[in-house]
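Project outcomes to date are best conveyed with an example. Our students and postdoctoral researchers have been running inverse folding experiments weekly, and each run begins with a structure described purely in tokens. The record below, which covers 1078 residues, was selected by the lab manager from last quarter's runs and is presented without edits.
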């Protein structure tokens, strides 16, 4: 084989082990046969490095390229033609991430080159042009089989490469050689001990996603040990190695594993005592920086900052891992400030340099916007956020540190493109085959919650620092929060408030965690934040009428009662109702020895609020406003004030006052959105808020979300968006957890909102510059996960105060509907008015029994009853007309008709229907004192309708009881003839009893506001034709989409536009009929 004479610089060489020997032989054998070589194996076994080292041995240039899934065959064609003309080697890293369609074309391209080499041509045709061929060119590919996001190679491609399995390298041998080269004398023993230690660690410690004891971890320890050895030549060798092992491994262990790890170390190196290392000026500066930011200098934070600093020296890719609320962001911010300060102070350690941070959330933008993409229309290359940031960092040639911080979930989609950046190549490979070399002063920092979906290839490339919120706890937060008000408070009051926190909160958090069920899980720190915000809104705002200068004997009881109120709602705010009593009792026990807390003796604590005028707790019920019925208001906009609307509105108002985000949760139909909407519209004048309502759906994208938000805000300057002057914008997001999860379980719209919550802005999608957003608070509502709703990342949830809205009790349901019905029946005869209580009582009872007895099963998946069904019953009764409903029997008939429509119509078999009819007849005797046989509901069905007068105007149509069935059939026949005259397709229908009932049911739904129908049944039962006739009877247009070949999501969008133009712009009444096959 001919030596290449390519000068590649003096770089480090590999340690030769039996495995590398075997690999060299195989690769050289492959080249003799004009094939390529394909080393395959797990991460960190040296596949790429061995290939590069062989190229160095033969003095060939070897280009390493990291493949990603957005490469296409044109790019690869350009690549191969360059290889053939220059005669260089190329190593395609992670080759099996390329999509399968592209791989089969690559096989064709490689065969062309191989045939030309076999025929010993000097020029050949490639992709339609003639190019020259230098026969030394070769392609190598490396693969990780079976990792996330990898494909299987097609057979015609496999035939062109010789596979080599690279499994476990010989750690002991490698460690021994490297230690010798770093200047250790007793390296054989040390290497054996070290490999033994890694073996014990991987067997005995707990299994965590971010642990990795592979070759890369070993290598970083050896490099660190060499640096320490040269730095402290007088220390013993085993002491140096232990320190290197400890410093590079401790940061990533959980608290329990750290103890085990120290045990393993002392077993392997008996009798060695490590001197505590003194960090001197570094530690002092870190504490100064913490205090300067107004934070508490806790020991665990300081040690984490130092650990991060040491990890950064060894690895240029670092991950900060740990659950939310542990202070990951603070740790790197403090380190950045510390290094900058030390440099300014003139310390001459080369590592103390000013730091520039570039923060981005990789999941808040699409893959194309992150790494750049080719514009489909103009075929121009558009740079992405990562490419721009890295390029900006590389152009800065000073020694300043440049940290690129990716704050967002790590998954195989985007992180794998960083693989070559994170290992020794330090190259960012973009899809337009551009490669950017990173300088030594650039560090990649990833801030993640866990590494559950990252592949081992990523984990092995990064240094890990695990930050555990269990060490920090929440007390430092309270100290920092209270310090803001220190000048307002007297000394005694300040300590009194701190004592309240330290005495009660921890027990409360434990009790909630162990004994109660939370609607949506929430971290402790987030509850404590809510508690602080409530106290701040009630005690420390300018508007609150609490005199903080009173004498302590009067002031402390007031503060204590306020604390109990806030503590109840902050810690117990997101418990489900069934746990309320338990938590109530728990609080009473906690505070019974405290004389300052004047708890009300009657009623539970949930029904009390702090009345600052009388300085004691009072019942909510006393401040619930009364309801006035207005016949002009549509049914869906009526809001009867109850205790729930008042108390949740009050809490939301107080939290928004201190600019804290609120999240309502609770099952569907309890009025989350209604409470929030009513409150925001009610206080927008006096609090000068501008409410914006957004709905999330499964198809919401982060792009769309950003457009909506930007459209509603005013542009202050080029890089600043904000609310109108003197106002605050409140963005209320309904159904926060609806957006669909991508392949690895993250939700881009949610990440976008989190980026705003954490950093106060987002990137412009076109020009990729950062925009700040001012004066905006988020509020949202979502039901607990399940049924198309997805769990939301805890890193967003921690910014919200969660309040779980309970389902209304029977008492409040009756109160709500009685207020409405009494208002409605005001013009009716006395006999009808008296039935109001009966109607509401019966309706609530039927709803209760239906929802507990008839549960959804796979065959009856639509047996889901919620409060909206109950309100539809009442809404139906509101269609009655005073001219027709004159007596008790008539009102009962319309009531039973509405109940049948809402509940009976969704039952699918006769036993369920019979059960319902029995309930109805029981209600008749219990509430309306009428005896009705359950059978009559079947034999003489009650049908109401307003279509008996053909051609009557909209206003003259009366909703009346239809008794004469023959007359009804004739009327329907007339309508059918009329329909056939006007429509192109003739329908022939026979009106038997069931068909007549179905038509009446559909007409009733079409007549109602927000009346949407789901018709369930086997094919051929007349669902479509009856709907067409019904919409014709009501004078509505019937709109259907036509499926054709090539009908896709965009054409559906166009059809919807047509439909909305008909209904919204031209004001035509429209029915949209849509079948399940579409």
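After processing, the design step wrote out the following sequence:
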């Amino acid at each position: 084989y001919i030596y290449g004479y390519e000068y590649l610089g003096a770089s480090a060489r590999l340690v030769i082990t039996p495995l590398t020997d075997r690999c060299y032989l195989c690769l050289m054998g492959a080249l003799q046969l004009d094939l390529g070589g394909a080393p395959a194996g797990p991460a960190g076994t040296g596949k790429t490095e061995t290939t590069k080292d062989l190229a160095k041995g033969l003095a060939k240039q070897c280009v390493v390229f990291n493949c990603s899934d957005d490469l296409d065959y044109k790019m690869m064609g350009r690549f191969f033609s360059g290889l053939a003309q220059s005669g260089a080697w190329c190593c395609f890293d992670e080759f099996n991430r390329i999509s399968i369609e592209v791989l089969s074309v690559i096989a064709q391209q490689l065969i062309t080159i191989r045939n030309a080499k076999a025929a010993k041509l000097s020029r050949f045709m490639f992709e339609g042009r003639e190019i020259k061929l230098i026969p030394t060119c070769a392609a190598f590919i490396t693969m990780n089989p079976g990792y996330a996001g990898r494909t299987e190679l097609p057979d015609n491609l496999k035939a062109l490469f010789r596979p080599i399995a690279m499994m476990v390298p010989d750690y002991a041998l490698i460690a021994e050689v490297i230690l010798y080269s770093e200047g250790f004398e007793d390296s054989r023993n040390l290497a054996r001990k070290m490999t033994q230690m890694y073996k014990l660690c991987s067997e005995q410690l707990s299994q965590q996603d971010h642990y990795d004891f592979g070759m890369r971890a070993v290598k970083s320890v050896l490099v660190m040990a060499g640096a320490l050895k040269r730095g402290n030549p007088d220390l013993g060798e085993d002491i140096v190695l232990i320190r290197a092992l400890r410093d590079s491994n401790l940061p990533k262990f959980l608290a329990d594993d750290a103890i085990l790890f120290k045990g393993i170390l002392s077993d392997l190196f008996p009798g060695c005592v490590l001197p505590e290392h003194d960090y001197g000026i570094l530690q002092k500066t870190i504490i100064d920086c913490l205090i300067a930011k107004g934070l508490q200098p806790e020991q665990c934070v300081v040690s984490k900052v130092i650990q991060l600093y040491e990890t950064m020296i060894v690895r240029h890719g670092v991950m900060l891992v740990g659950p939310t609320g542990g202070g990951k962001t603070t740790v790197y911010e403090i380190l950045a400030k510390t290094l900058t300060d030390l440099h300014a102070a003139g310390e001459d350690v080369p590592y103390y340099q000013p730091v520039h941070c570039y923060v981005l959330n990789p999941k808040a933008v699409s893959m194309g916007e992150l790494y750049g993409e080719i514009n489909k229309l103009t075929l121009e290359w558009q740079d992405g956020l990562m490419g721009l940031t890295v390029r900006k960092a590389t152009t800065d040639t000073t020694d300043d540190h440049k940290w690129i911080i990716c704050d967002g979930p790590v998954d195989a989609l985007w992180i794998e493109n960083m693989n070559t950046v994170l290992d020794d190549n330090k190259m960012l490979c973009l899809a337009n085959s551009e490669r950017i070399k990173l300088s030594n002063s650039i560090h990649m920092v990833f801030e993640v919650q866990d590494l559950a979906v990252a592949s081992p290839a990523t984990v092995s490339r990064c240094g890990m620092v695990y930050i555990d919120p269990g060490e920090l706890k929440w007390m430092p937060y309270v100290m920092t929060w209270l310090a803001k008000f220190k000048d307002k408070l007297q000394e005694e009051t300040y300590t009194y408030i701190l004592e309240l926190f330290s005495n009660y909160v921890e027990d409360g958090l434990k009790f909630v965690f162990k004994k109660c069920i939370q609607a949506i899980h929430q971290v402790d720190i987030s509850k404590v934040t809510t508690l602080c915000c409530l106290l701040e809104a009630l005690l420390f705002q300018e508007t609150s009428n609490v005199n903080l200068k009173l004498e302590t004997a009067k002031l402390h009881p007031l503060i204590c009662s306020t604390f109990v109120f806030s503590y109840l709602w902050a810690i117990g705010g997101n418990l489900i109702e069934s746990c309320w009593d338990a938590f109530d009792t728990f609080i009473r026990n906690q505070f019974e020895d405290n004389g300052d807390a004047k708890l009300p003796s009657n009623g539970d604590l949930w029904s009390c609020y702090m009345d600052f005028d009388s300085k004691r707790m009072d019942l909510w019920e006393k401040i619930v406003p009364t309801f006035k019925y207005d016949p002009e208001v549509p049914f869906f906009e009526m809001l009867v004030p109850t205790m729930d609307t008042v108390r949740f509105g009050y809490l939301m108002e107080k939290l928004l006052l201190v600019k804290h985000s609120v999240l309502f949760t609770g099952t569907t139909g309890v009025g989350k959105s209604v409470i929030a909407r009513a409150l925001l519209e009610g206080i927008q004048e006096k609090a000068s808020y501008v409410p914006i309502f957004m709905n999330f759906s499964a198809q919401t994208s982060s792009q769309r979300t950003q457009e909506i938000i930007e459209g509603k805000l005013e542009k202050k300057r080029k890089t600043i968006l904000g609310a109108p002057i003197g106002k605050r914008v409140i963005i209320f997001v309904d159904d926060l957890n609806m957006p669909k999860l991508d392949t690895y379980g993250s939700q881009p719209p949610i990440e976008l909102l989190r980026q705003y919550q954490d950093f106060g802005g987002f990137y412009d999608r076109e020009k990729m510059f950062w925009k700040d957003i001012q004066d905006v608070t988020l509020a949202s509502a979502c039901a607990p996960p399940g049924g198309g709703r997805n769990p939301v990342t805890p890193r967003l949830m921690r910014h919200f105060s969660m309040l779980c809205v309970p389902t209304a009790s029977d008492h409040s349901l009756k109160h709500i509907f009685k207020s409405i019905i009494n208002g409605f029946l005001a013009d009716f005869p006395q006999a009808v008015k008296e039935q109001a209580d009966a109607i509401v009582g019966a309706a609530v009872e039927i709803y209760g029994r239906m929802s507990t007895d008839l549960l959804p099963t796979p065959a009856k998946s639509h047996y889901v009853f919620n409060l909206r069904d109950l309100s539809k019953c009442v809404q139906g009764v509101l269609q009655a007309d005073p001219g027709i409903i004159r007596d008790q029997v008539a009102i009962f008939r319309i009531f039973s008709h509405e109940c049948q429509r809402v509940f009976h119509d969704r039952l699918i078999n006769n036993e369920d229907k019979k059960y319902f009819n029995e309930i109805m007849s029981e209600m008749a005797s219990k509430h309306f004192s009428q005896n009705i046989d359950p059978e009559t509901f079947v034999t003489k069905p009650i049908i109401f309708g307003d279509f008996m007068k053909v051609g009557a105007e909209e206003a003259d149509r009366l909703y009346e009881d239809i008794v004469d069935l023959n007359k009804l059939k004739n009327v329907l026949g007339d309508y059918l003839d009329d329909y056939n005259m006007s429509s192109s397709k003739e329908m022939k229908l026979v009106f038997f009893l069931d068909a007549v009932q179905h038509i009446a049911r559909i007409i009733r739904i079409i007549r109602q506001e927000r009346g949407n129908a789901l018709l369930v049944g086997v094919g051929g039962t007349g669902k479509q034709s009856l709907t067409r006739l019904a919409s014709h009877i009501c004078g509505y247009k019937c709109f259907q989409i036509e499926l054709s070949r090539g009908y896709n999501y965009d054409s559906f969008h166009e059809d919807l536009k047509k439909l909305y133009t008909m209904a919204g712009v031209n004001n035509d009444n429209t029915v949209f009929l849509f079948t399940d096959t579409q």
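The mean pLDDT is 85. The longest strand covers residues 401-407. The training component of this project remains on track.
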